[in-house]
Design goal:
The protein is an alpha/beta fold. It contains 5 helices and 11 strands; from the N terminus they run βαββββααβαβββββα. The structure holds flavin mononucleotide.
């Protein structure tokens, strides 16, 4: 499977998590790229797109995502398999924890993508998060500021779920 991991990162945390995810997916052909440098036309070359962002300002997506999100369209994303990951700080920002990833979620869903890799909302301490869709997060959530000791295990567990979702998707499709 050809996988693109596109991330936006101010201080390197999301970039780091992108690398950890890439490592955990080593059996696949994975490209890790900063969203700043990605031409969205290249999304067509991949079987799975994994998008990651941190949260900034008043609970917003990392700034480098804005330009790409404004260009997202159905022609490129409709029917495309997408998984998401979001970073936040649950101690400093418990009322808007990891909100930013929701902007990417809304955009890909509105453009017809199929989101996989929803993630359990257990084991996190926060008050409110826009990343929550029903009872699950719309993707893997990481708190690198306060719980970096959990990051690798969270990635490993999430990848296991993601692999199951991929198999289910392929079975349903065929
Ligand atoms: C000024 C500022 C605003 C932030 N706003 C939020 C926020 O609203 N919600 C949240 O969960 N985290 C927030 N964070 C925490 C970052 O998302 C977190 O540190 C993240 O790991 C940074 O990742 P990056 O280095 O990849 O950008 C904020 C951090 C700073 C410094």
């Amino acid at each position: 499977m050809k996988i693109l991991i596109g991330y936006g990162s101010n201080t390197g945390n999301t970039a780091y998590v992108a690398e950890v995810i890439s490592f955990a997916l080593a059996e696949h052909k994975v490209t890790v790229q900063n969203i700043k440098t990605i031409n969205i036309e290249t999304f067509r070359d991949y079987d799975l797109l994994i998008f990651g962002t941190s949260t900034w300002s008043n609970g917003e997506v990392q700034k480098d995502w804005k330009d790409s999100l404004s260009k997202f369209n159905k022609d490129i994303l409709s029917g495309k398999l997408v998984a998401l990951f979001g970073l936040g700080d649950s101690v400093m920002f418990p009322e808007q924890f990891a909100n930013g990833v929701r902007e990417i979620y809304d955009s890909v869903v509105n453009n017809g993508a199929i989101v996989i890799g929803y993630w359990k909302n257990e084991g996190y301490n926060y008050i409110f998060s826009r990343a929550l869709i029903g009872e699950k997060f719309c993707g893997l959530i990481i708190d690198q500021d306060n719980e970096s000791n959990l990051t690798v295990q969270r990635v490993v567990d999430w990848i296991k779920e993601l692999q199951k979702d991929i198999v289910n998707y392929i079975n349903v499709k065929n």
